[in-house]
Sequence to fold (229 residues):
Amino acid sequence: MVQIKAVGDCGVLAELGDSINESVNSKVMELNRKINELSPQGILETVPAFCSVLVFYDPLKTDFDAVSKVLFQLSESLEGKTGTGGKLVEIPVCYGGSFGPDLPFVAAHGNLTEDEVIRVHSGRDYRIYMLGFLPGFPYLGGMDERIVTPRLKTPRTRIPAGSVGIGGEQTGIYPMDSPGGWQLIGRTPYRLFKPEQAGRPLYEAGDSIRFVPISQEEFEEISRKQEKG
Fold:
């Protein structure tokens, strides 16, 4: 049963559950898709998250009651459905060394070798539960419990763009230079945040990511191509 809450004077939050799992998140993505497909009058933007969809509206064109009615109606059709699957995006990653300074700690914490951490981390596909914290930062679920590692006690003031990290039970990618407290295990040469380019991003919430290990030479080659493109 969906729970509807007001957020400020022009937002409505539709909560579809209280736990982080693929079933609930699939319904979130399906509701988000239905809202955007219907495009109700006055709706400005939707923000899907782990268990909810936040809807912003123009108070001069609609109101809380009207938006809530639409959300209730659309959510009724979600019962028993898991939603549509997104696309799979492969992300090349050069693990360890200067690109992944915390790989040794992650390995020691899990009583694994560094190569085992790499195999485990790149050995499955990860669902993008939501984008947040930074533009294009994917919160990825489904990580193997063997490499679950606590965040840094003292966050770094600068993490290079493209860094792949582990924070507790999740893994993710820093799309731009920023502070952060996740354990860094590698870096992708892909430039994930391109504000100067219009069009759809490389990935969206509801898609899946597969990490593909590459060498430093391959990293540098892809980086050069990214700069030219």
Q: What stands out?
A: The chain has a mean pLDDT of 91.
